[in-house]
Task: inverse folding
């Protein structure tokens, strides 16, 4: 590896075993090798040249790379400008549990290189979340979006389970989110507590009932509670802890995006308590 130009950033999600990589190479990247995971990635820049399934492939920006477990492949730059990519490594057990279907047999990718802008977007989004967010529910939601977009490429269209309990599942999940607002609850735990067959069933039921995902709803009620506490004069750092935000800066970013002013500014407007850091707008 040319340390002056090449770089690899990797993060590991302990709960799922999933890894995410951002990498850039100027020339040769790696020799022929195999992984035990499902690889789903997107070329970010340059030309990504690789051999897979006995043929040479050339991936350009926005194209999606799909490699099955134990498929041999290599990698190098397709021209002098080098290439960059984002990649997610999905353990077999995670994908198997996520599909939860009755098709029988092992799934497989129809092609190792494809054009699917929605899948590319979900891969980028999931990589960003894995690198920058520690919240379990938002990580689960981002990874589930990748799995949902992968289904057509695996020949596994979604089959919704029959039953009339979707509204009850959504209601119980909503109540649990209110009761445990400050906890970092994961999608699997929330689904189990609400009586859903899986986190995927819960996500569909919740969206049907409330028009949004469980994570988005949780963020909305956290922000609403934060407004209430700030209006009483509670300091932003304490509010962040009380409402389940990672820290004060996390609260600040979310609050300003939702309401157009900082928590300190809102507190000052409500209580006339001055704060030298408060900024409106």
Result:
């Amino acid at each position: 590896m040319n340390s002056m130009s090449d770089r690899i950033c990797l993060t590991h999600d302990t709960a799922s075993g999933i890894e995410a990589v951002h990498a850039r190479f100027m020339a040769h990247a790696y020799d022929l090798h195999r992984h035990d995971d499902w690889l789903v990635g997107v070329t970010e820049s340059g030309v990504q040249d690789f051999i897979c399934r006995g043929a040479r492939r050339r991936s350009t920006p926005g194209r999606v790379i799909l490699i099955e477990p134990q498929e041999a492949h290599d990698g190098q730059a397709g021209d002098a400008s080098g290439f960059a990519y984002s990649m997610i490594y999905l353990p077999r057990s995670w994908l198997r549990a996520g599909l939860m279907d009755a098709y029988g047999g092992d799934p497989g990718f129809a092609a190792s290189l494809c054009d699917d802008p929605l899948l590319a977007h979900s891969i980028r989004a999931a990589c960003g979340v894995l690198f920058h967010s520690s919240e379990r529910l938002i990580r689960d939601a981002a990874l589930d979006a990748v799995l949902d977009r992968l289904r057509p490429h695996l020949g596994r269209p979604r089959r919704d389970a029959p039953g009339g309990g979707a509204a009850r599942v959504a209601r119980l999940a909503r109540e649990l989110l209110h009761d445990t607002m400050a906890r970092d609850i994961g999608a699997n735990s929330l689904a189990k507590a609400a009586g859903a067959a899986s986190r995927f069933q819960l996500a569909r039921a919740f969206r049907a009932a409330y028009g949004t995902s469980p994570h988005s709803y949780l963020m909305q009620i956290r922000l609403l509670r934060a407004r209430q506490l700030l209006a009483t004069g509670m300091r932003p750092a304490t509010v962040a802890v009380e409402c389940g935000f990672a820290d004060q800066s996390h609260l600040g970013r979310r609050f300003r995006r939702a309401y157009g002013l900082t928590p300190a500014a809102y507190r000052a407007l409500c209580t006339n308590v001055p704060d030298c850091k408060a900024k409106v707008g």
